[in-house]
Design a protein that fits this description.
The protein is α/β, with parallel strands linked by helices. The protein contains 15 helices and 15 strands.
Amino acid sequence: MNGPHSDALVFFGATGDLAYKKIFPALQAMIKRGTLDTPIIGVAKAGWNLDQVRARARESVERHGGLDRDAFDRMSRLLGYVDGDYQDAATFQELRKQLGSAVRPAYYLAIPPALFELVTEQLGKSGCSAGARVIVEKPFGTDLASARELNRILLGTFPESGVFRIDHYLGKTPVRNLLYFRFANLFPDSLWNRSNVESIQITMAEDFGVQGRGAFYDRTGTIRDVIQNHIFQILSNLAMEPPVRVDSESVRDEKVKVLKAIAPIDEKNLVRGQFRGYQNEAGVTAGSQTETFAALKLEINSWRWQGVPFYIRAGKQMPVTCTEILVRLRRPPNVYGSGDVSANHFRFRISPDVAIALGMMVLSPATNNGEPAEMVANHHPEANEMDAYERVLSDAIAGDTTLFAREDYVEEAWRIVDPVLRANTPVYEYEPGAWGPAEASQSIAPAGGWHVPGLTPSAPAEDARRAA
């Protein structure tokens, strides 16, 4: 369900890192595409003036996406700036003045979550919140209790229909394509159930470490950083039922049903790891038990999926940077009586490249024996393709909530991981460049083993060991 189009965009944290790397480039792209033609007002406490903000914006787009002179000139004309303390009511009085005749502004809180309550309360007290919507960045809390508290804060000033919780990952084209592939094609649905699917694996690997963000990461860890949000969004897209309509609330209803059908993760179904050398990173506490790797198993207790294990693996300092999904089907009977018949599969690569593959057995003309093969469809990004931030900001301004997490979804996601966040489960060390600690393959092992991104899923086990 779409709401009215916002008639102004205000973003708090205008001089911050997120604005520099993501927001200004997205705004220029939106203006170029014609989806943004309203006043843009930055707010921050930096002692800057508007000319300095414009210079910062120009440097931002030059370094992150490229300067488009016409679009940037239009953005500069639309851009305003309020410099002031968020605790000072005068800051919000000046904001109200700069909003002028706008009656449906969108407020983007590109600021630390600790400031959300202060800013939302000030927006309410100043009269700026009437008819408005608020856009907030993940993380939406750090556990179930804090997520509920954050929702209490936001909903104290804005209605749920006016709260847009950004997880930019949902704006990525290949993530959105998972739903399109499932529901715009007839053939997947006949296989997409417990009768035909043996297991589903989701791997999100990064071949780098914390990249100077040790203090942040040490308070967060892999489960909070990517599993509870990004990977659960992928999981929901894979497992949800067809929505009765394609409006945003119908789609979000089905995603919440997936999470409601998942029991809290059991400690025995989780392995946490930490790459060797992590504790030498700046900002990391000595003796830290924060995980940089996690592997887990869960099940969805629904008619479609009951009994099908879902395996999730994510971590840093892995052999590759790649996000890939493997839907392994049950093995067919071997009516030929000789040789091995591999299970069919679907494989979805989300990044760095994009592909959908169907794995099958074919007869080799050279040997007259069966061999596994894949039929692969690749996607090559087009020059004018929206990036994730442009997509989600455009949708927020248009009032389309489809790609945004609803209150009940956020709380269900935290409910699933909450017990293991509090539990003192062991953290096993692993070598940088390995697929996590050995314990992950010993106790959280899919039938047929973990799929190694970059290899055909039916590759011999020895090939997989070499790749690992």
